[in-house]
Specification:
DUF1080 domain-containing protein; signal; mainly beta; 1 helix
Amino acid sequence: MNCTVLTFPWRPSAWARLALASMPALLVGGNTVAQTLNFDNVPAGMPPEGWTLTMTGKGKPKWTVEAEPSAPSKPNVLKQSGQATFPVAIKSDTAIRDGFVEVKFKAVAGSEDRAAGIIWRAKDADNYYVVRANALEDNVVLYKTINGIRTSLDIVGRKGGYGVSRPVPSGQWHALRCDFAGSRFKVTYDGQPLFEVEDATIMNAGMIGLWTKADSVTLFDDLAYGETK
């Protein structure tokens, strides 16, 4: 597969980067090679290849590629419509220590929860970092999950509390991103920097992926990720 390489003298916005979804690879900021997946090459109703579609905890997650008229990159999205403690989709062939992961998502339904998250440095479905936005709680929170136990992490410069409050309207597309290097994580939501977290529990390279909670019905598109060289 041929790759197109672009060099940006500035740091493009979240939406500008995602607008380049049709390009299989690009150079961001001069030292990060990025890939973007839009699930459009997978038949509707089928799971995407190269993914571990599973969960943290118990239940019956359901991850499928579906046609979606509102998709940012038509025609397909990745949809989670099952129920589990934490449905998890892990990109099996990734191994990134320092880099970024970003996705567009739309929270569709869910009475117990209505969440969308991105995962990085995953060892497996029970050990990873995740930042998620929740349309029922209207907040964004970053956690570590170790041996299946999820713990929220303090924001740099603030002790206590639980993430940050931010409107996450259901039925609308949003963008969620985390840049991670060493023990420092920077969260961006809809193109606006939100907060930073410092944690050194998982320092090795790991897989990236997607995450929901409980009965959330969530759509994902334009998953971008890259490793800082």
